[in-house]
Amino acid sequence: MAAVIAVQRPVRSRFRRSVLWRRRIVAGVIALGVVATAGRAAAALGGGPLAASGAAPSVTTYVVEPGDTLWTVAERLAPESDPRPVVDALVEARGSATVIPGETITWVAD
Fold first, then answer.
1. Which residues lie below 8 Å from residue 94, measured CB to CB, with a gap of 6+?
2. Which residues are 108's β-sheet partners?
3. Residues 68, 100: contact at Cβ < 8 Å?
4. What 3-state DSSP class applies to 107?
5. Nearest to 31 by CA among 23, 42, 21, 19
6. Which of 25, 49, 66, 106 would give a disulfide with 101, using CB separation of 3.0 to 4.6 Å?
């Protein structure tokens, strides 16, 4: 019984390593140039930086206690503002005007 043995010769590149490295470096520089140009174009067209600008909204969490009403919860969630719009927003978001003791209500102030 005869066995077949395959012998592979090493693949030789047509280019020297120095040529390949130069091509890689040039391709990297071109890619960085494209990214920088795109960033400048976005800024010129009114786009901002990638990071979000402005302050983060304040988030308040309140756990409903026995005897609380939606009105008292709204006063505690947004003490500096008129509670009527807060109550309206809570009723619209929750679908109900009743609160249950132990319920957690989260309010995101603009």
1. none
2. 59
3. no
4. strand
5. 23
6. 66
- DSSP codes joined into one string, 40-66: HHHHHTT---SSPPSPPPEEEEEE--T
What pLDDT was estimated at residue 52? 58
Q: What is the mean pLDDT of residues 94-98?
A: 83
Q: Report which residue type is found at 41.
A: A
- CA of residue 35 relative to chain centroid, distance: 21
Distance separating alpha carbons of residues 20 and 26, to the nearest angstrom: 10
- At a CB cut-off of 8 Å and minimum separation 6, what does 86 contact? 74, 77, 78, 107
- The residue behind tokens 């120095």 is 18
Residue type, 92: E
Asked if residue 62 lies in contact with residue 76, where contact means CB atoms within 8 angstroms, the answer is yes
Rounded CA-CA distance 99/97 in Å is 7
Token pair of 98, please? 């009743």
